[in-house]
Amino acid sequence: MRLAVLSAFFGLSVACFTEPSADRMWRCSVEQPLCPEGQTCISDWCTKDGTALPDLTAPDASPSDMSTSPCTDGFPIGTQGVWACRGKFSPTGTKASALCLGGYRLCADAYKLTDSECSSNLLKGFFFAEAPGVTASFAAAAKCATSTTMNWGNLWFGCGWQQTAPASERAAVACRGLFLVSFCSANFGCDTTDGHLDKQRNDDPRNGVLCCAP
Question: What is the pTM of this model?
């Protein structure tokens, strides 16, 4: 009898320490980004790469409800309806704005984002906003470009961290609330005569655009 009780006890103990299922939604934080293998801590939830995070503030929302995503491949940043949508884009192919689906549009500022959300090192890839920049020398001196600025759009503001050279950097002064910049390069071809993101080219599928709710 005693042996049977001990066996049952140890059986329960093993069950209590079973590795959590990767299919379940788990809470996390920037300070403690502990998630099952294959998931990343995004907006306080462990999220599989390329999987939309549901609107958990909705009355009947559940982790299986992924129908609100405006991206073919992306994830939310923050809680105010901003999404990072991955994908290549070009003026002659899929335009940048076409990565935003369901009535979403290219974000032109960080009005619905905090700097910590936008610059988190968990954001792997650079997500461009409709915010061209310009600098005469280095990223720290970057500023917003206007239609009267020479060489406007030789860099662009957005969120996240570029995975290939040249790496994204941080400006000393924000442009429309955005601090991070990505320079024009072989993977990000810029038309410095036109300051619209639809006229630029991104060849890195790990990068993309910021999409804001309509």
Answer: 0.69
